[in-house]
Amino acid sequence: MAIILIAIGLLFTGIDIHVVSGIEYPAFQVTGMLGKYELAPSIRTFTLTNVLGDHVRIDCLPDIVGCVLIFIGCSMMLRYNKRYLGGMAMTVVMAVASVLLRTCGFIEQDSSLVVWIIVCFFAQVAAELFMEYLVLYTTVGITNALVNRGTNTRILFVWWLTVICRTYMAFLNFVGHTGVSNIYRWVLIVATLIGSVLLIRTRKYVKK
What's the rounded mean pLDDT across residues 86-107? Predict the structure, then answer.
């Protein structure tokens, strides 16, 4: 059951399909100085328009749900390997960054909002990748029965494919190239689905 929870959780965190809600952010006043530095217009555009938007964007597969499922699954697998603790810690970081990214527009409306967006955006991306690395490589280690090694190799292959896609997507979305980003998004969706199915198939090889 733990592996199934982790696999479903990875689907929620790995696939992002955002829709724009009717909840509008307050008016932003981000022009002017940020400390001793002047904010470049491009940075304001990248963060406010491309990342945050003027309305709250809702993920159809909420990352927070995926983080909870992965956290529970990892806690059930701790008896096999304590490295799952690292994955659990990263799910907390990712969940916090995900929530802050969508709510920071209500917390700050001045120039410091740009910093909030950049920190939360890249913290979420980094925490997600590091969490998946810890969880998947630990799972592969405890399901490394000879008959299952081919499946484990395929799991890691499709995961690294998703890493490439998400890395490119993060920067493409940041600079507003959403058209090119959508190509990587479809590759990511297919690879994530395949990886999750393969991961579920490994559950019978835990510690065998």
Answer: 90
